Amino acid sequence: MALPYIEYEKNIIDEGLETGMKNLTQERIDKALAKVLDGETGAKLKAYVDTCVHCGLCSDACHMYLSTKRDPTLTPAGKVKRSLSVLLENRGNITPEIIKKVSIVASTECNLCKRCVHYCPFGIDIAYMMSVVRRICHLCGVTPLYIQDTAHSHAVTQNQMWVKEDEWIDTLQWQEEDAREEIPDCRIPLDKEGADFMYSVIGPEPKFLAQLLYQTAIIFNTAGLNWTMPSCPGWDNSDMAMFTGDSEIMGRNKRFHYEAAQRLKVKRIVMGECGHAFRSVWDMGNRWLGWGMPPVPMVHAIEFYYDLLKSGKIKVKEKYKKSVTLHDPCNTIRGMGLHEKARYVVNELCENFIEMHPNREHNYCCNAGGGVINCGPPFKKKRVATNRIKAQQIADTGAEILITPCHNCHSGMEDIIGDYGVGMHVKFINDIMYEVMEKPEIE
Amino acid sequence: MTDKTNWDWETKEKQISDLNEWKSSYNWVEEPYASPDGEKIAAIVNTDDMEFNVCENSKAWEIEEPFEKAYSLRYSPDGRLIVLAAADDEWKTVVDGKPWETIFDFLWDLRFSKDGKAIAVATQTDGEYCMAVNDVPWKDSYSFITCMTLSDDGKNSGSVVQTINLGQAEVFKFQKGAFSAAVNGVPWDTNFVNVWNMAFNADGSKLAAEVRLNLYDYTIAVDGKAWNSIYGCVWEPIFHPNTNSVIAPVKVKDGWTLAQDDNILWDSRFAQVWHQMVSRQSDKIAAIAATSYGKWTVAVDGKPWDITFGDMVTDAVFSPDGTQIACIGTDSGKYTICNDGKAWDIKCDMVWKPVFSPDGSKIAAKIDKNGKRTIAVNGKLWNKMCDEVWEPVFSPDGSKILCRSVEDGKYYRRVIPVSEF
Lengths: 443, 421
Prior knowledge:
Largest interface: A-B, 51 and 57 residues
Shape of chain B: globular
Oligomer: heterodimer
CATH architecture of the largest domain in chain B: 6 Propeller
Largest sheet of chain B: 5 strands, antiparallel
């Protein structure tokens, strides 16, 4: 059944953008452009800009274009034309109003999902070009309110949700205590120096999704692994500063993260089911700091679960009965190629796995990633309306459960499932593994 | 500094405790900690449902009520055993089995002065935050604190504090500055957009910190006064122990370098510079640096070693006379020790911070190899591969090494002549 198109307000008012624009001076604009275009970008950006022949092949890659009766302004090339090209072609005459407009395009109309890179005959990385625009907008102080507030949280607390240091530890102890109802000697070992694994998560887990910490504790304890979590800042691997263009805060947070692991002398970091955080720790933040690769080996939860099942450290008691489909998150699939491992895990855990199409590296984006969902309520309807194609894709599977091993995808999917009336529940792999795994018998 | 002269440097081997017996006495035994002198070993133990205690050398603390929660068990440098523990949701610092008087709603971030005489914690009560040193909380408390620090002598404590309350998503109020640093609870006069990692000078009379002036401009502030220069980014400052000048990594147009009292110190530029350190003895200034992307080394007075490591360099330390530097270098996931640009031949799965002998002729380190722990001295492994070891300690004359280890569940304290390595 074809899902309806949803109309949305084009002229969205966001306090961060409006006030940022009002505060913006010409001097600040010129400084920002000079810093980024003359100092931080070089041959890469020039090659992309000069190489694009506006062939339009990227259009069919974009879920926003496909979801809006093929609105040409929402093609990847169209978005570049409405943002970066405006800045490049009008340098010297850029007004605060223009910065606001390009900020809307770069921050709320592109998820940096890189699907279009696969469609471009030259492999032009439009996500990089959009990130350059976001960087300029950050330096101009014109960014959407809610994601800017999140970047501030990262700057102050080194986590995404203004979680205070005692709240973090208290939450872990609370989850550990609850988990002892199931496994009496279950532990979430804090600051255990020399552990094999450090587990890191994103801010929403202690804030809203503490059951994931509980479930993870059960998984680690059942598998008999020597693990720890840091009690200090550095436990959060997420990164909205990366998406506002605040590279310095991105780097600072990644330094906290990796230095927590270095201090604890762990051999490996395992991170929870988050896509954008993976991009930050594995690619963006570490490299901004000068590390070629993660300085401490790190794996995404998909790889970790794969290893647990493959090695037999976690055994399945009885496979999950409900029909499931799997969403391939951009950052771990297009970004890292974990799609086959994800399928192995889902097939090991679930009886009835239904592929959605297209899939793997060709999958449609959730339209929440890239910081778009973090731009908050003002942009929610637009976000949902510009991802009808994803709602259609998952509805067509007929599955009862949608597995999304990514937090932002998870939230974005819940929104489109609700607003399009798809009638499906969203789960993490963690939820299902916890449900179907063999657990230690209580004596 | 810990006085090691009175430690037992004669007894070659002592079996202090059999941890296997602990495991049969308690529901579970958490990870053990050895005292600095090696004479004691302790762990948090579970005695019943939601009941915890601390066991030290096979003997449980005699406490009035079991703890409902206990964590952060550590020995202070002067050998006292501390744990943060709660009963009835009231948290106390417990030292050698005796709870301190002051009750808090939460305690964390246990830290010590160099000699261990001062014990500091971060505290929260009724949603108000401050530090407490030797059980004395600051007079003033705040809605938020972070980046706690303690002066070497323990007389001064500092942290980042929030001085202006912020409502949800008040981003422009935030950008006017709502954070400062407080020393012993008293905030600087100036607010900043952000304040981070701070350091006291040698006598604890001055405090320097990283600050962000707006969303883009970074600098260093000393006692609340920002440097005049603006940088693209900065990392944590330190004080020169001899001159009281402030030294910090700063990001300038052509890369990272060090600045001293707001003047660029090094002519050289790097892809990264951090963890700078100064030798009081030699006046040398060194830092961990990346000569280019993914090439990590140590730079001494601005000049990098020839050797570079692909993964990272950590835990750099000066020799006691300040003429040498040792650090941990990592390549392709394998760790080793590097001394003045020369790496040990052995490659390990993990290495702990290198320790110099008093005369600087030997370097020892705790290592992890093939799932076992041991000690290495000048690149040679101890002949015992253990379940656990603690970081090696040289005797005051440098002729012996204290090795603290767990083998087959038994904790041993051994004094081994350096010549045996």
